[in-house]
Design brief:
Layout (H helix, E strand, L loop, with lengths): L7 E7 L3 E9 L9 E3 L4 H6 L6 E2 L6 H4 L2 H5 L4 E8 L5 E9 L11 H34 L15
Antiparallel strand pairs: 1-2, 1-6, 2-3, 4-5, 5-6
Length: 159
């Protein structure tokens, strides 16, 4: 935000139908952590599929963005976004930014920095997901040792 001045930055997670805002830095759009929006209506969906560029200094100059339903819902003049991926290549979500005003074409030079930030963030998110999964598996394994497999009741160790 300090460097590029966009009014809103978000980290989102998508499930294919909806996207959830995990973190936001918002100065005017009213979006916050936990907010959801329809993935197919978003600029991010068009960017991820390759139907629109990752950096759009002027939304009105990119038909895929200008025609998106979100354009009728919010005042957006410029957009930047990059996918966040898991280690297996699946889509986790996006790192994106929006501003109500169109920006200079100089914004296009910022794409490598944004892509680097997305790769770093993807690595951290993937590590956190793997750690949470390992913790859940360990808890299930520990709980299984306190239950009799025949009766499904607490065994001596559980008591």
């Amino acid at each position: 935000h300090e460097r590029l001045g966009f009014q809103m930055w978000m980290v989102t997670r998508t499930d294919g139908v909806d996207a959830v805002v995990l973190q936001s830095f918002d100065h005017g759009y009213g979006m916050g952590s936990g907010d959801e929006f329809r993935w197919s209506d978003s600029y991010c969906a068009r960017m991820v599929t390759g139907h629109a560029p990752r950096v759009a200094p002027a939304i009105r100059n990119v038909p895929a963005y200008a025609d998106a339903p979100i354009t009728q819902q919010m005042e957006i003049g410029a957009y930047m976004g990059v996918p966040l991926t898991c280690s297996d290549g699946t889509l986790f979500g996006t790192l994106c930014a929006m501003d109500p005003d169109a920006q200079s074409d100089d914004l296009l030079r910022e794409l490598p920095s944004l892509e680097l930030a997305a790769r770093l963030l993807s690595t951290v998110l993937d590590a956190e997901l793997k750690a949470a999964d390992a913790e859940r598996r360990a808890e299930r394994a520990e709980n299984a040792t306190t239950v009799d497999p025949l009766t499904n009741l607490v065994n001596r160790k559980g008591w």
